[in-house]
Design a protein that fits this description.
Number of helices: 20
Shape: globular
Strand order of the largest sheet: 1-2-3-9
Distance between the termini: 24 Å
Structural class: alpha/beta
Length: 481
Amino acid sequence: MALPPALMHPPMMAIGDSLYNGMRSATIDGQKTQGSPPALIARSLGITSFSVPDLPRPVLVDLENWLERLSPIVGVPLAVATIIGDLRESIRFWATGPANVPSPSGARAFHNIAFAGATIEDMYQLTAEKADACARELAADALAGGGLKSLVANIGTLLIMANARFTLAPDPELSEANPFRRRTSLEIVAMRQPRRLLVSIGHNNGLVDIALRADPAGATHLANELEARYPELVRQLCALPAAVEAIYVNLLPAPSAVSSLMPTSTNAFDTDLGRYFESYETLMCYRYGTYRGERLHEIDLEVQALNQRIIDLFKVRDTIGRVHFVDVFGRMKGIDSKNNGRNASNTFIVDGRTCTNEMFQANPLPGSLGFKAGGLEGLDGIHLTAVGNALLARWVLEAIAEKEGVAITQPALVTDSLIRNPPNAWSWALFAYRDIMRAQAGKPHNRSALEVTAVQHSVDIAAKVMSRMSLTAGKPPEPGV
């Protein structure tokens, strides 16, 4: 099917997962997609036509808003009931209405088609039609039950499928006439032939397990996934039409620099990759876990080797030299104040707040601005804030400037609503939830029953979302496969 000329040869497109979708604190909506790294990159390059998914409301999960409702703590029972009602209504909105939720702008295609939770194989297997069928099936199961358990049983997968359906083919009817209905992300790119393509993928094939549950196997699962899934991704990327002149691939990040893994010891040792502490734990997690510092250093080295493996795979296939790499691993270690201590190059003072890669913490005391620590990543400890998005965009832009010799304007570092006004409940919810997960793992905890109830009914939903963002959590068979 020939596409309308307006859809052909855009200056830039982006594919991938949540880091390019713009997710923050396990939440994605139209405002967050506007602040995604690809959107910031487009504005810096003067690409005014770059479009992102204009999601009309948060897709199922709205963690920051939910936590705000938990303040004050005496209102927790009512807040929990309200949250459950919101979740049920959101499932109906996203997965039980017309074939697709209409785009508020009437868009039939976007330039940024990255969607949260995407895996490597989703880039060449998942279509809007498959996502639609899966979302409807999961929504029916969720709404058939009478309580919270049924609502959140498959909430992560449901969020991913509803988001993917809207992003890949924003057609309110998802009709046969839609040229993207049965097309994967890579097939859509091949059809539209952008001049420049941005790619961020691989995090949900094992890295989430390292950051959110301290998987004892470290990068082994990730390595197996890359070996099984990445060659086909490389093949299809390198087979794109010649009109796609440049492809920028983000390499995998450094696990030790992710906010969700925080030190539990003050004793540290130096390595070739910088400083590491004796022990770490997962703060915002879907399964509590710990690492010894030596093991976390080994895992960083394993991921670093996998990044070289990715480069080598492309070298074999990329015969015209159009694939370029963004060293996200090295850049993250360069701003790793959590492990190396704060200095001028790894801290970012924005609107009077010192932002770092530590876990996000709130301070409810008067005069504190509500913000206590962290600031590069949101409440889930893995997805970026506005400051983090701007830094990632800067790294990609520098790669583009180096390879293409174009002038760039670096995105400004600005705060977002989370940094400016954190939920007061987060001042206790983060550690209450950590203690809950410790207790479930057979370790002691010291929080009140009221805190346990509040957090278990709200933060746990976000943890279930992130649980789906790892292949070890399982993924239902795609319809028709």
